[in-house]
Amino acid sequence: MLAVTAISLAGTLSVAVGVQAYDRINGEGFASRSPVLATGGMAATSQPLATQVALDILKKGGSAVDAAIAANAVQGLMEPTGNGIGGDLFAIVWSAEDKKLHGLNASGRSPKSLLFRYFADNNLEKIPSHGPLPVSVPGAVDGWFELHGKFGRLPMKDLLAPAIHYANSGFPVTQLVAYYWNRSVPVLEKYPGFRETYMPDGRAPREGDIFRNPRLANTLQKIADDGRDAFYKGDIAREIDRYMNANGGFLSYDDLASHKSEWVEPVSTNYRGYDVWELPPNGQGIAALQILNILEDYDLAELGRLSPEYIHLFTEAKKLAFEDRAKYYADPEFNTLPVKELISKSYADKRRKLINPERAAKRYDAGTVALRHGDTIYLTTADKDGNMVSLIQSNYRGMGSGMTPGELGFILQDRGEMFSLREGHFNQYQPGKRPFHTIIPAFVTKDGKPWLSFGVMGGATQPQMHAQVIINMVDFGMNVQEAGDAPRILHTGSSQPTDELMEDGGYLSLEDGFPMETRRKLVQMGHQIRFESGPYGGYQAILKDANGVYHGASESRKDGQAAGY
Prior knowledge:
Elements: H1 2-17, E1 36-38, E2 42-45, H2 48-59, H3 64-78, E3 88-95, E4 100-106, H4 117-121, H5 140-151, H6 156-169, E5 171-172, H7 175-188, H8 194-198, E6 210-211, H9 214-226, H10 228-232, H11 235-246, H12 253-257, E7 262-264, E8 267-271, E9 274-278, H13 286-295, H14 300-303, H15 308-328, H16 339-342, H17 345-352, E10 375-382, E11 388-396, E12 442-446, E13 449-457, H18 461-474, H19 480-485, E14 489-492, E15 507-510, H20 516-524, E16 529-530, E17 538-544, E18 550-554, E19 561-564
Parallel strand pairs: 15-16
Antiparallel strand pairs: 1-18, 2-10, 2-19, 3-4, 3-11, 4-7, 5-6, 8-9, 9-12, 10-11, 12-13, 13-17, 14-15, 17-18
Organism: Microbulbifer harenosus
Subunit structure: This enzyme consists of two polypeptide chains, which are synthesized in precursor form from a single polypeptide.
Protein name: Glutathione hydrolase proenzyme
């Protein structure tokens, strides 16, 4: 009885002082679990059933890409709060055969019939967050088929079968998904089709409720039978066109039929001997590279991860990178983007000089170079042959636009909210243009070999956490699970590609685990500190060591699981 009482008191104390601690015999005190080790294959997703589906595909002889597609299809059903076939997709694939990385931008474009002047004519200073106006072409399904055509082994029917099965027979809704689902209902229930698909019995599912989506099962079956054209040129496209036209929307059959994904070259910077890879804009991945470049000149290991000096430098580097993000990151088909210059070491040297080591800046200007919080899923897979996939997919804000076409069983994304309505801006709204994107997959190589496939879902959180994961592993010596479990730094309030300007320095949120002394010192340095719960992102990762062993990690803040065989 005495032992039980002691444990209880320790738990109470942990909560009282705001420190997350686990009683583990080794590893960092904040680590939630050991990494998962395996050699045959590995999957890490934010939904345990999706992880198991990915492993099943790998065991049947499927590639890492096959496993990723199957898992993503399941997650679109089971985590409609973060993704689905109404959204977009980005991926980085390590091909063991040609020993190189391949990048896929499967993001959709704005409707061709929605003209820029429409917003001024209707007295709109910002694109709405929900309803028909922020809807852009869903790119995920085309992304699946592009990935499958290049790296797939099993038939697409086999890959979509698990999602179809679960959509028909049902699955238990997990804890965090239930929370966000219920939070979305008051905003989205007014949009046509939402209640019929996502509110059985007139309410959102609660944790443990069995949810079925036979409409989505039918849609996925059409895609499995007839391929990507079933979505972009067949009955599905015609139903989306009919629905949007009937409900004040602009997305049309022609927009869907003309859609195509784009294979792109990932870009990188070297951070202390590790090549960190991201996709170029219209995503925000290069912000992580800019942050790392600025910080590389400091001895972060000497400063220590809990020091106010490290947190201050990280925050100021983020502010600098995000000013460039607000100005330059946009669709490269409509702009000449100075990506090479932005991620150069020489440019970082210039920007670093703007940081006052003693004081937080209220504002920075974007550099001169030649020339919101979202909901997402991230997953990573690896197969027995050494192929690895880093994949991220999203409907953007919450469950998406709320626009839920007819009997199709999914919500259309609201990514178009991320355009600027300022004429002349790189990210200015234009018909047929891809909006600025927050979702970014990442990859790290060492000496030309794959080392880490990882990502951190969560809006503007993502590049900040990409940089922190790398710093945690390279500078602070953490393993792949500890790097995700470690308390996180989040700065909010930077200038945005949607015209918001930082003029007050924004504010800093520090997850439980940072000492009060550190917080106090940061306040004295001019930082605004807020206590927040929840916005710190969701991490998954697979590391490949020198022996060829995969080390899987999954986010302790989410519902997910890393598993291998």
